[in-house]
Amino acid sequence: MPFNALLHKIADCVSATLGLQIRPQDHAAFATLVEERRLALKVSLEQYYGLLQQQLLWPQWGRGGDLQSEWHVLATRLTVCESYFFRDRQQIALLQQRILPGLIAQKREQAGPHKLTLRLWSAGCATGEEAYSLAILLRELLPDWANWAIQIIGTDINPDCIQRARRGAYGQWSFRQVEPERQRGYFDHVPPEWVVRASVRQWVQFDVENLLGDRRLQPVLDLHNFDLIVCRNVFIYFQPTAIAQVLQRFHGALVPGGYLLTGHTELHGQNLRPFQSFDFPESSIYQRPLVAPAVLPLGQANGPENQVQPPSASAAIALTLARPVALARPVALSRPTALPTVAPSPNPEAVPEWLQTAQSLFEQGDYAQVITWLQHHQAQPHEFERLMLLAHAYANQGAYEAARSHCQEGTQLRPLATEPLALLAHIADDMGDRETAKRHWQRVIYLEPERVWAYLNLAELYAQEQNTSRAETLRRSALRLLEQLPPDAYVDPQQQITVAALRAQLL
After folding, report:
1. For 147-172, how does the pLDDT look when each residue is reduced to its tens digit (9 = 90+)?
2. Mean pLDDT of the 303-326 span
């Protein structure tokens, strides 16, 4: 299906409504999705566009109130739900050792006879792991937590993600960066899942929310007066103008002195003058000053004449209240291996319907149904994709033996494929078998010497063994590979991270 003028109009409508960027490299996949949806609805392309325009008048779609809305379908299909607990060790360390202790100390000093309060917003929370991680951090930092009124709000535009977050039940794969004692301390094991305990859940609530806002909707959540907003790995999907709009909203939602934490380098080129910027070895963080600075027009980027000034003593109060902790700069962690997908095709019939259904179920997090569905479908030429979907589904349920078995079958079909090896490496690492994990990553590098993430994952394993020289050598190898690529190129399209962004994390 060619990306014609009408498809461009549909893509522009999606970008304006959801903020999501439909890049040129996304055109084929987007065209396939639109074609799939119009065929399912039995309408022409013109009628499909008209339906989207008509449903924009329905206020309930924005809160997930009408599950039959086509906007609900698009929000679900165009966003990524994958997350895990305590993601990005560097930023978690910054929150745990500096930001949250500073806010806690500030609140104690200001409270007097009043109730101690903290309000946090996990914006773009996916399936809720980030919001619950924040709650756990606060439980660990507050010995008198019963004396506090804590409110953590998680929002996402994907209604299916919010439903899963509210359920609070996760497979073992979501705990790949969690110490076993912490996992046992805050979750109940209800095989095959781990369920968030009430002591953590009581502080957290979730709802569907479009970060761009929608004045037609009656407010359900009080999205104001936050001490901290965490919005990580969300802006990478947004148009620059949409980022500017959301930043303006975040600034207004923060209390004076409140903080905004985003993913690394996600705000490059944005107007940050309304915020005070703080650069730490672990990450940058942005604060709404106690006294508002001059504001540039919305969307105007920082130039040399508009650089953020050093923070004043008053603006930095929360940071100075927290005792600085000297942190070693760890080797940057990568996201897990991208989930198996079939390459987009202009012809929707090129990918069998049964495989599309399985992938849709996987994206929804219904791993048990994925397994049941695929056990009844065995066919060439997509047997490798079927096996890898099964392997990932089993891994996400903590059924590692079954996952490994399907990875081995996939390797027999395609001896030179690196995807089964990468998943086997993650499984071995998760089970504490570091040597096996290293062997798998070494094999990946042998087969695909330009795979940057393999070097970084292997570096992390050596860093865990205190073999800093070997870890640094691998890290430098990754940097050399990145230097050969255009800065705006995507290291891995599935991971949505540019060469420039990854280099910034490593330097």
Report:
1. 999 999 999 988 889 999 999 999 99
2. 33
pTM here is 0.60
Whether 1 has a pLDDT exceeding 90, the answer reads no
Do 464 and 354 share a domain, yes or no? yes
- Judge whether 452 lies within some domain: yes
**N- to C-terminal Cα separation, the chain:** 42
Residue ranges of alpha helices (H) inside 119-239 are 129-141, 159-167, 180-186, 198-201
CA-based nearest residue to 282, from 335, 333, 229: 333
Question: Within a domain: residue 143?
Answer: yes
Q: What is the pLDDT of residues 215-232, one digit of tens each?
A: 444 445 788 999 999 999
d(CA 67, CA 223): 24
pLDDT value at 65 more than 60: no
Residue for token pair 């990478």: 236
Instruction: Let me know whether 248 and 130 are in one domain.
Output: yes
The pLDDT, as a whole number, for residue 372 is 85
Residue with tokens 């999907």: 237
Query: What is the number of other CB atoms lying within 10 angstroms of the CB of residue 80?
Result: 18
> Do 102 and 56 belong together in one domain?
no
Given phi > 0 = left and psi -120 to 50 = alpha, else beta, which region is 233?
Answer: left
pLDDT at 269 over 90: no
Residues 123 and 51: their CA atoms lie apart, in Å, by: 28
> Alpha-carbon distance 495 to 235, whole Å?
13
> Residues with Cβ < 8 Å from 425, sequence gap 6 or more?
436, 437, 440, 441, 444, 457
Residue 200 has pLDDT above 90, yes or no: yes
On whether both 73 and 97 belong to a single domain, the answer is: no
- Counting the structural domains of the chain, the total is 3
Last residue within a domain, chosen from 47, 78, 109 = 78
Q: Are 192 and 273 found together in one domain?
A: yes
* Token duo for residue 291: 């006294």
Length of the chain: 507
pLDDT reading at 345 higher than 60: no
Same domain? For 58 and 93 the reply is no
3-state secondary structure of 93: helix
CATH of the domain at 467: 1.25.40.10
Query: Which residue's structure tokens are 């070997």?
Result: 470
Residues spanned by the domain of 359 = 348-506
Same domain, 251 and 353: no
